[in-house]
């Protein structure tokens, strides 16, 4: 199976598990076995992928658009997914506050990395924690970008 195929199947699995197998069956009208085939890496299922309408239905219910993000990454596109539901406009800290937040987040990432690499191996859970910190850094950078754009207007 191609690297792209394995990558997509990994994200299809994450999407199904995010929603939950029972809920995924209900939302897509597919059986557990069929959904399992969509992310199976067995040779007999290597050419089976989830239909786009099923992906859309699951991503509507999921906490994160796993497959859409994977497809974007494959094309070098960066998506801005912000699950923070703010009741007010962005804080008026401006770029200076963003630089401070960026420094703090980077320090947290480095601390997490230092702890993860202590035994010479980064486990799956450690990789997830590192990924979470990198996503937080990305959010701070997006906020900084928006503040900088506000400054130029």
How would you explain this protein's 3D organization?
- With 153 residues, this protein is mainly α.
- It folds into two domains: 3-74, no CATH class; 94-152.
- The chain is built from seven helices and no strands.
- The chain has helices at 3-19, 21-28, 32-39, 52-61, 66-74, 94-116, 124-152.
- α1 packs across α4 and α6 (94-116) packs antiparallel against α7.
- The longest helix has 29 residues, at 124-152.
- The termini are far apart.
Provide a compact summary of the structure.
The protein has 153 residues and is an all-alpha fold. It has seven helices and no strands. The longest helix has 29 residues, at 124-152.
Write the SSE topology.
Layout: H1 3-19, H2 21-28, H3 32-39, H4 52-61, H5 66-74, H6 94-116, H7 124-152
What's the mean pLDDT score? 87
Figure out the total of helices.
Answer: 7
Major pleated sheet? none
Q: Identify low-pLDDT runs.
A: none
Number of strands: 0
Shape: globular
Write the element-wise H/E pattern from the N-terminal end onward: HHHHHHH
Number of domains: 2
Using only C-alpha atoms, the radius of gyration works out to 19 Å
How much of the sequence lies in strands comes to: under 5%
Q: Structural class of the secondary structure composition?
A: mainly alpha
Report the end-to-end length measured between terminal Cα atoms: 49 Å
Helix content: 55-70%
């Amino acid at each position: 199976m191609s690297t792209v195929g394995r990558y997509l199947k990994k994200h299809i699995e994450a999407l199904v598990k995010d929603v939950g197998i029972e809920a995924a069956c209900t939302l897509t009208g597919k059986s557990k076995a069929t959904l399992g085939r969509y992310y199976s890496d067995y040779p007999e299922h290597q050419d089976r992928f989830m239909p786009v309408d099923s992906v859309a239905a699951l991503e509507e219910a999921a906490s994160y658009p796993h497959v859409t993000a994977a497809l974007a990454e494959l094309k070098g596109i960066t998506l801005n997914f912000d699950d923070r539901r703010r009741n007010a406009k962005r804080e008026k800290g401006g770029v200076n506050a963003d630089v401070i937040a960026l420094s703090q987040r980077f320090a947290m990432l480095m601390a997490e990395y230092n702890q993860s690499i202590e035994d010479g191996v980064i486990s799956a859970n450690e990789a997830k924690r590192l990924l979470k910190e990198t996503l937080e850094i990305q959010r701070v950078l997006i906020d900084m970008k928006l503040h900088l754009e506000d400054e130029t207007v």
